[in-house]
Amino acid sequence: MSVFLLPVSTQDYAIFLEQAADTYVVGATHSGEMTIEQARARADADLKALLPARPQTPGMLLRTITVDGDWVGHIWLGVRGSAEAKYGWVWSVYVDPQHRGQGYAELAVRLVEAEALDQFGVTEVRLNVFAANRGAIRLYERFGYAVISQVMRRTVRP
Q1: What's the pTM?
Q2: Cβ(131)–Cβ(31) under 8 Å?
Q3: How far apart are CA 36 and CA 41, in angstroms?
Q4: Within a 13 Å sphere around the CA of 156, how many CA atoms are in the beta-carbon half?
């Protein structure tokens, strides 16, 4: 099995945007944080703001995950922070449902971390995951990610 990360092509960029937005919408709505409409608007605005030069935006690694030459998903890591305290931020990891549970997401994260270290000197990587996404939380914990902050909520009724 050969797993590679390839730059998201201009032709595949629309597919990448759709998957990144859909992944966010699912997480935000399942968490109860937003309605579908609110989550879609937020995803679209964030994608536009974060990727002004599309896949060529400096400081961003938009990668297609391939296995034995076949597309299985994408991963997106960007550089955040200041020059003195920069870190990588994983914005999106998507593996096609028929390819999940085979270790591709973990391998993709490790590969993009190595690329961020090599290309940008990033020695720390952070990410955000919705609490309802237990599978992703287990994946990240399994290879060393730890909670550094939490947002909690409670509905107050009169």
Answers
A1: 0.92
A2: yes
A3: 9
A4: 1
